[in-house]
Design a protein that fits this description.
The protein is an alpha+beta fold. It is built from 6 helices and 15 strands. Strands 5, 6, 7, 8, 9, 12, 13, 14 and 15 form a 9-stranded mixed β-sheet that branches. A 4-stranded antiparallel β-sheet has the order 1-2-4-3. Strands 10-11 form a two-stranded antiparallel sheet. Strand 1 and strand 2 form a beta hairpin. Helix 1 crosses helix 2. The longest helix is centred in the last third of the chain and has 13 residues. The chain is globular, with a radius of gyration of 20 Å.
Amino acid sequence: MASGADSARHLQVVVSPEDAGQRLDRILATRLPDCSRAQVQRLIRDGHVHIGRGVARPSLAMKAGVTIDIDLPAPAPATPQPEALPLTIIYDDDDIVVINKPAGMVVHPAAGHSGGTLVNALLHHVRGLSGVGGAERPGLVHRLDRGTSGVLVVAKHDRAHRTLGKLFHDREVTKEYLALVWGTPKAGQLFERPIGRDPRHRQKMSSRSRRPRAALTRLIEVEPLGGVSLVRLSIGTGRTHQIRVHLSEAGFPVVADPLYGGVRRNVPAKVSALSKLDRPFLHAARLSFAHPSSGATMTFDAPLPDELSSLLGALRVRS
């Protein structure tokens, strides 16, 4: 990847043999994790995607080895605007608001998606968010990937923001996730490989990074389900894509995660329901921390969204 001026970026994607025959927009949506498929299609139609001298079309079937050039424009400098987007609020007081983020929603504005983010929704539903995070990230002290659902806390004022930020920095926040993975790992396993930006695939993170940072993931419970397993895990750090990288590199990729090997073309009949899943089966299930004002330990749970709960029920019946 070659950097452009300011926040504009130039990316190159090489079509892998596994992606051969897939639509251009589908391939790019998996390689650009912060862009939705609709945003990828807009980039293509606006002339930001190039394939040699040919014309790029969203529906174009791609061949293995083809290089795709993408020019991601700099995000609009305007302050995010409030948008009346649906938002499930779990808890709300004078200091914090805890929400259940849906899968598919980007947390904050960035290149390719200046609107429709969690920040836009928060600005509509919550008044006076902390300014410490900056104009584009008001109140945010942590984030979830676009495809990940679940519990997330936001600070309402600067004192709460600084207090929560220190708790996250000092690893005094308990973060538990539920994931469906291929294979059957062992409960109690600890993954400690440092991770950072992958030197060969700039859209990915990996332990091959030239500048890795410490990362800690622990498996708490494992429920085998006939070729796949439901796992509950906790993370001691909050690196980008941490859970997805650690599980994938250990041979247990998250089901339906296209970036880290979780999408499989030949799905066994006994788990055929997995072929209908269009998002990674990864959910932030529990968040526990000391309240920034009272100091009392607070724990918040977010139930599995319907599409994951129904799928899990079907797998349990089949297994």
